[in-house]
Amino acid sequence: MPTLVGVFSQAGPVATLARRLRDRGFGDLEVYSPVPAVELDGALDEKPSRVRLWTLIGGLTGVVTGFLMTIWMSYDWPIVVGGKPLASIPPYVVIAFELTILFGGVLTVLGFFWVGGLPYGKFGKPDATYSTRFSAEDFGLVVRCSDRDVAEVDGLFRAHEAKEVTLVEA
Amino acid sequence: MTPPPAMSVAAMMRPPVEVPDSPVNRDLLAVMGRPTLLYWLLLLFLVVFVHAVGAVWVFQVYKGLGIAGYKHPVFWGVYIVTFVFWVGIAHAGTLISAILYLFRSKWRNAINRSAEAMTVFAVLTAAQFLGIHVGRIWKSYFILPYPNQRGLWVNFKSPLVWDTFAISTYATISILFLFVGLIPDIAIARDRSTGWRRLLYTALSFGWVGTAKQWKSFNRAVLHLSGLATPLVLSVHSVVSWDFAMSIVPTWHSTIFAPYFVAGAIFSGFAMVLTVMIPVRRIFALEAYITEYHLENMARFILLTSLIVGYAYGMEFFMAWYSGSEFERSAWWYRAFGDYWVSAWVMISCNSIFPNILWFKWARTNVTILFIVSVLVNVGMWFERYVIIVIGLSHEFNPDVWNHYMPSVPEMLILAGSFAFFAMFFVIFIKLFPVVAIAEVKELVIHEKAHHGGGAVAHGETH
């Protein structure tokens, strides 16, 4: 299947073009960006990132663990400290708070790996479409399409400020 | 549009175009270039010094805590002082990375990486002191709630247990934060390195190529980590302050402690970032990236937090007088004019008098003055903790047990070793990983290019 790689110097046109291509039914797209450009977040997938769910689950697990652990352990070794009830909620808030952050943070990072599809590719062998210029200052848009669409995609690339268009696979 | 025949599609294939690398990559990866002889000598000195001090610690384990200068009733000395000092230093990184990220302050980009790295190393340094302080290091795991044959659990009502949770959470989250932020930059380094470095960066970049999916989850993860780290950073030094404020010791038992400690932590953290970054910026010619603008903003933060800390000092004295409590008044008089008056006045002058020079723009933009002020603040903040901890304990309620603590030589050596320990990690880090966040600085450069057009981009103007 022919694969076209367009090289751009700005993120804006890449996002616009990606949307147009998706509207025209080109589903097999990939975007490379050298920087965390927010414009591109919705370029291929409009839905908010699923990392949100991971953070939420992590945080909730943390707060529940924090309170259950402290309260259960206080009753399992029932020793009165400072005349306070065994299950003293105010001091346990500190533990529950720290565990909320800890579990939430760890799950966020795991979610980042899972949702972002990392580890990506084969060890030490980047994709054929990837080039080191995409870790320099250029943005890339990769389109896999049928032979008959090559000219159309090429035209769209050039209409959206592509600096270069390369065909990497025929 | 007529579909072209298959032949012509194949004919369209061209070899990839060779383009020059981004100047931002080139300049910032140059920091990781071949180390000079001076670098190796510095690293050798640090490693040897850390090991020599490690030997002092082993000696302490062998002889017992008696070799420290503890005298009844002062059993918290230099080790706890230094622990609190390093935890404080660790606050700048998360503040710059998380809080300024949420406020969308673009000027953080040039300094966030080094500050995050300092956070991690400072927490590691601080954590050493918990082990050093308890003396019987082999029993330090007793603080963790683990199932055991005696069927007992830790006392969750103790601030020392809160502190264990706070510090270990902070260490974990700051390491994760640093690492997640590093992944795109490690990929940049991977694409431009050979040999063992390429292997290392290939492994650590997890195949990052910057696809839309990867950046999308990256942006979301960084946002959430910032959101989680912001309350965390405020909680950590609050919890450290409760180690003191939960007791009834005069000068400790005070509700002002949490905000006062957090402000002090940010104050000392920013000062340490300046102390480290000013020489690094000079040595590696990073003036175009870490500009006077960045340094000036740091100076403003130092001035602001200095004022908060100064207000807290004044308010503590006021409350001691206004409360009418005999013990408080006596303890505070002793702090300012007693045996330890030198420490107290070093603290007040370094933290609340000298930083006032930063009211003037000429001082904020003068690198030498900034460096001197930042070193003085570090000294002052170490003394602040010394003043709070040691003076507080030496002059409690019962005059019969008042006593005077002086740090012993092993304690001072271990204190000096902590600086070498911190510096050793930073010196290694600077040659292994990008010390300025390349992708984020580049984002500003590309943004500038879009708005000013052409390739003539002043890389310094990255605010």
Strand composition percent of chain B? under 5%
Q: What share of residues are in beta strands of chain A?
A: 5-15%
The residue-averaged pLDDT of chain B reads 89
Note the quaternary state here. Answer: heterodimer
Structural Rg of chain B: 25 Å
Shape of chain A: rod-shaped
N-to-C CA distance of chain A: 6 Å
Write out key terms for the chains shown.
heterodimer, A: alpha+beta, four-stranded antiparallel β-sheet, 4 strands, 45% helix
Short description:
Chain A is of the alpha+beta class and about 170 residues long.
Describe this structure in words.
The complex is a heterodimer of chains A (170) and B (463). Chain A has helices at 11-23, 51-76, 89-115, 150-159; strands at 3-8, 29-32, 139-144, 164-169. Chain A has 170 residues and is an alpha+beta fold. Chain A has a 4-stranded antiparallel beta sheet with strand order 2-3-1-4, with helices on one face. In chain A, helix 2 (51-76) packs antiparallel against helix 3. The radius of gyration of chain A is 25 Å and the shape is rod-shaped. Residues 454-463 of chain B have low confidence and may be disordered. Chain B has helices spanning 6-11, 23-29, 37-63, 78-89, 91-102, 112-134, 159-191, 195-204, 212-245, 257-283, 292-323, 326-337, 341-353, 361-364, 367-394, 409-432, 438-452. The longest helix of chain B is centred in the middle third of the chain and has 34 residues, at 212-245. Classes of the chains: A alpha+beta (170), B mainly alpha (463). Chains A and B meet through helix 1, strand 2, helix 2, helix 3 and helix 4 of A and helix 1, helix 7, helix 8, helix 9 and helix 17 of B.
